[in-house]
């Protein structure tokens, strides 16, 4: 069965919270300091996505495969001031078992279309850097330390 991307609803937030947590475990274990991922469990992530949707902070999309959410992406107004683009890709995650399936590409295409955007990505994430570069993003020389996730360095990419 082929995967599908659609706009998320409030009924999806528990699954999105689970995917968000599992994707962080799969992607950032050994990179984030011990305990950082666990300090933000799936239930708290689901609450965060509920607030995101109810407060209309942006758009939230899910990738489904065989009736299960296996990835998601969010877009919204840029969080930095002054903004370098009108929209920011706030997050995009696909569970590791579905890397290479095309669902990440579909999430990006549906959530952004051909629009210019900014995003922040972990400096130590070559897989993500390659994905974004294939999609026209490049580092603009701006970086920051993300204290929420254990003082990891992130870089901004734009297209």
How much strand content do the residues show? 25-35%
Number of helices: 4
CATH arch. level architecture: 3-Layer(aba) Sandwich
Main pleated sheet:
7 strands, mixed
Number of strands: 7
Summarize model confidence as the mean pLDDT: 95
Described by the principal axes of the CA atoms, the overall outline is globular
Corresponding CATH superfamily: Gcn5-related N-acetyltransferase (GNAT)
At the fold tier of CATH, the topology name is: Aminopeptidase
Uncertain segments = none
- Terminal Cα span: 33 Å
Overall tally of domains: 1
Order of helices and strands: EHHEEEHEHEE
Rg from alpha-carbon coordinates = 15 Å
Helix content percent band = 25-40%
Structural class: alpha+beta
Strands side by side in the biggest sheet: 1-2-3-4-5-7-6
At the first level of CATH, the class is: Alpha Beta
Structural write-up:
The protein has a single domain, classed as Gcn5-related N-acetyltransferase (GNAT) (Aminopeptidase, 3-Layer(aba) Sandwich). The chain contains 4 helices and 7 strands; from the N terminus they run E-H-H-E-E-E-H-E-H-E-E. A 7-stranded mixed beta sheet has the order 1-2-3-4-5-7-6, with helices on both faces. Helix 3 links the parallel strand 4 and strand 5. The N and C termini lie far apart (33 Å). The mean pLDDT is 95.
């Amino acid at each position: 069965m082929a995967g599908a991307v659609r706009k998320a609803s409030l009924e999806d937030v528990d699954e999105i919270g689970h995917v968000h947590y599992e994707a962080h475990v799969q992607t950032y274990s050994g990179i984030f300091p011990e305990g950082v991922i666990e300090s933000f469990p799936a239930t708290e992530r689901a609450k965060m996505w509920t607030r995101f949707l109810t407060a209309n902070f942006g758009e939230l999309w899910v990738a489904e495969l065989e009736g299960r959410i296996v990835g998601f992406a969010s877009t919204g107004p840029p969080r930095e001031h002054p903004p370098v683009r009108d929209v920011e890709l706030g997050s995009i995650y696909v569970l590791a078992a579905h890397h290479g399936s095309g669902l990440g590409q579909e999430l990006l295409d549906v959530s952004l279309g051909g629009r210019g955007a900014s995003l922040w990505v972990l400096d130590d994430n070559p897989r993500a850097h390659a994905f974004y570069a294939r999609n026209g993003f490049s580092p603009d020389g701006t970086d920051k330390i993300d204290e929420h996730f254990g003082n990891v360095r992130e870089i901004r990419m734009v297209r």
